[in-house]
Automatic annotation (TrEMBL):
Gene: kduI
Residues at which Zn(2+) binds: H198, H200, E205, H247
UniProt-recorded name of the protein: 4-deoxy-L-threo-5-hexosulose-uronate ketol-isomerase
Cofactor remark: Binds 1 zinc ion per subunit.
Species lineage: Bacteria, Pseudomonadati, Bacteroidota, Flavobacteriia, Flavobacteriales
Record-linked HAMAP family: KduI (MF_00687)
Length: 280
């Protein structure tokens, strides 16, 4: 099976005001990210951020370059963050093997030529979620295990937003050009992520929702703070957040998501928080 990719253009907030449900989903929702033996990539014109995924089973899957990059190999001018949300797998980088267990991550710097994804077991494969951004400099590759992350507890049960945030790829953990990635898990009984909501006009962001129980869903909110829209999300779907947009969600149960950002600075806390009562 061959790898697939698609391009998403940047939308103006005035245009998005008029989108109906279908168009909103076409522009911002990313489905079918975790396909067996087939790498799917979505190239966004917001900060040229690439979102991808693959579930290697019987064979190893190569990270091929895509036509939009006009590069001789994928990481010629890019950096890459990988988080494994499945069972044990391996990322082979120019012959060097990095073993990633469940919820372990890998940062790959610019200049790595040959990258392969494989699973330890065909029956319980690895599930690799990928974020990539342009890079001006080559930083060393680094595996980020579960004990290497920075952990932050946020919210409370009373406001239904108690959650644990784990920073995997931030510049206090690993040297990066512009990519930032982490994982946030909602506690049982809590459903709201990123509430109070925020915007950061300097950076775009992509949320990948997973561990949504069967039969449940997450309503993701986007748009300018006084002009919001929602997108209903299934398990293993991602959603692009333009720099001018809030990005938060509420589930019909608790769930987990991976956030990835890129843009102007590497200051994770640089957000403009919205007053909850002023959202529209
Ligand atoms: O800019 C930061 C990102 O939106 C997320 O890290 C927020 C988040 O995971 C949360 O509050 O639950
Ligand atoms: Zn954010």
């Amino acid at each position: 099976m061959s790898n697939t990719y698609e391009t998403r253009y940047a939308s103006h907030p005035e245009a998005v005001k008029k989108y109906d449900t279908e168009q909103l989903r076409e522009e911002f929702l990313i489905s079918d990210l975790l396909q067996e033996d087939r790498l799917k990539l979505v190239y966004s014109h917001y900060d040229r951020f690439i979102t991808g995924g693959v579930v290697p089973t019987a064979k190893k899957v190569l990270l091929e370059s895509i036509d939009s990059l006009k590069a001789s190999y994928f990481l010629e001018r890019r950096e890459l963050g990988i988080i494994n949300i499945g069972d044990s797998g391996t990322v082979t980088v120019d012959g060097e093997e990095f073993h990633l267990d469940h919820k372990e991550a890998l940062y790959l710097g610019r200049g790595n030529k040959e990258v392969y994804f494989s699973s330890k077991s065909e029956k319980s494969p690895a599930k690799f979620y990928l974020n990539s951004t342009p890079a001006h400099k080559a930083f060393p590759n680094k595996k980020i295990g579960i004990n290497d992350v920075e952990v932050v507890e946020l919210g409370s049960p009373e406001t239904a937003n108690a959650r644990t945030l784990r920073k995997y790829i931030v510049n206090s953990v690993v040297d990066v050009c512009q990519l930032q990635m982490g994982m946030t898990s909602l506690k049982s009984g809590s459903v709201w992520n990123t509430m109070p909501a925020h915007v950061h006009d300097r950076r775009m962001e992509v949320y990948f929702y997973f561990e949504i129980p069967e039969g449940q869903a997450v309503s993701h909110f986007m748009g300018q703070p006084t002009e919001t829209r929602h997108i209903w999300m299934d398990n293993n779907q991602a959603v692009i957040s333009p720099p001018w947009s809030i990005h938060c969600g509420s589930g019909t149960s608790n769930y987990t998501f991976i956030w990835g950002m890129a843009g102007e600075n590497l200051d994770y806390g640089d957000m403009d928080v919205c007053k909850i009562t002023e959202l529209r």
